[in-house]
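Quick start: what a row looks like.
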Amino acid sequence: MTHESLPTVDAAVDAVLARIPGTLVLALPLGIGKPNPFVNRLYARIAADPSRRLVIVTALSLEVPTGASELERAFLAPIVERVFGGYPDLDYVKAARAGRLPPNIEVREFFLKTGDYLGNAAAQQHYISTNYTFAARDMLAHGVNVLAQAVASQHEGTPGWQLSLSCNPDVTHELKERAAAAGQPVLSVGCINRELPFMAGDAVVAPGFFDLIVTDPACNHTLFAPPNAKVSTTDHAIGLHASRLVQDGGTLQIGIGSLGDAIAHALLLRHERNADYRRLLQALDGPAPAREAPEADLAPFRRGLYGCSEMFVNGFLKLMTAGVVKRRVFDDLATQQAVNRGELDPASLPGGVVMTGGFFLGPTDFYAALRALTPAQRAAIRMDRIDRINQLDGPGPLDNALRRAQRVQARFINTTMKVTLLGAAASDALESGQVVSGVGGQYNFVAMAHALPDARSILVLRACHDTPDGPVSNIVWQYGHCTIPRHLRDIVVTEYGVADLRGQSDAEVIRRLLRIADARFQPALLEAAQRAGKLPADWTLPVAWTHNTPEQLDAALHPLTQAGLLPGFPFGTDLTDDELRIVAALRRLKKSLQHPVTLVTTALRAVWSGQTAPPAYLERLGLDEARGFKALLLKRLFAGNL
């Protein structure tokens, strides 16, 4: 296959517009695989020409944070410059967020940045609800005729020149194959970004994989790098409970965010500081541990784990470095089966991988570590297609048997928002139908856990969350939206323990979920279940269960947190110590603004005590020369919340 090399983004846009005379239906990878400069130039050209139409079909369109208030914007400005400097925001994202997309441009996404588009009518109306394994199929159904992707390059201009789909081999291969099989012409554009790590596996393609290759240095921009989220005490408790369910010699899937980091950190503690790990579990369990759970595995990892996850996150790289994710799997069925039976020593065999991922996204140091991988380390990570990762059946005739042999003792750990007392879960949308994020691959992994003989699906969630009207339980009697149906219920984990729901009766499922619910909501939940005839009218809550409170949890873990075992940022942060203090104060201030009594109390305390904030903090927030009632009040409130 041949390709045309184009030296500028403008030349590439000209070529696309010349070859596709009508409506452009542009497929873009999710996350950081988008070639932003090319997309922005194409967007501008179509926006200026009402005779043309552009439909963008994609997922997870990212945007540099800006802040919702003057204080937040002032605080974020230096961080944005430090972390995101050189990253060109996508113009269509800015326009969509503001509700100002041109009438001849439409954006359709199958996964939204979490919570960012609640109340955005256009985004909500054009959202595509689909499983990740159906994404390529459904994108083509929208009439895709252009595919554009950022790629890495190696040995450019030599006979051995190769490209890498790097962060996004997830749906690209399948989309091109399906288009060819259907006779649907798709013009493919690869834009070289030399900031992208060159990754191995299915990511490696020949230059002829693309019709057009853009070599413009303007495409070499900074990668979007979301900073690590703070891991709370609640998150750490959930991570610790989940970590005891992971079997040595097994398979692991986790996701991004504070809960994913908490799970990875707990696994590292189990492996590297096992005595401290057991102390933490003992403190969590207290006098009445949740016994309705699978047998725990608390030992360090001797055989290690195989990482198999649609998302390759920073936590996986930390686990690889520590020797937790080290179990090698092989692409030959006979070899893999012999290894499983103990007839072959994997250490004596060439090849094999310890990590398979479909896409990646993470902080700046994660990308730097991927770029710095040795050839051997890179070869141990296979960036692969989603239709191979998220399901057992794939494009090859032996895929089902091979994947079953590789994915022994799998633990697929996913986050959810709500769980009903009958075991259904809502992970992507609210009762109103407003989409929070998307289904992604969650349903795929839950279904796969039931298809594999020794696998388990583990859904993790915080037992409650705060709202302006007070705390609300995330374990509910019923919910008007469902991502995972109750007949696929398996294991649920909160900060208060583990509930094994697989194969249990409805009454037992309810009891086990009440056991790990926040005690403040247990009586109302129990009453709802009894009113519906799902629990005996004379059944009462055991007294030990009523100790499930944030205060009890904090008291149990506080000494060990003070000892440094449960850090707020186990994998580091892009924020300075001063910035972390300001963030904490701003969070408390935001919360107090929702509660007038707390607001007044904080302000009066600051006045009476004469408490002030460091001048550098006030200058950072633009409060150093505060004038007027509002500015002076904010200055006092900020000081009070420090």
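That is the whole record. The longest strand covers residues 146-154. Residues 379 and 487 are 39 Å apart (CA to CA).
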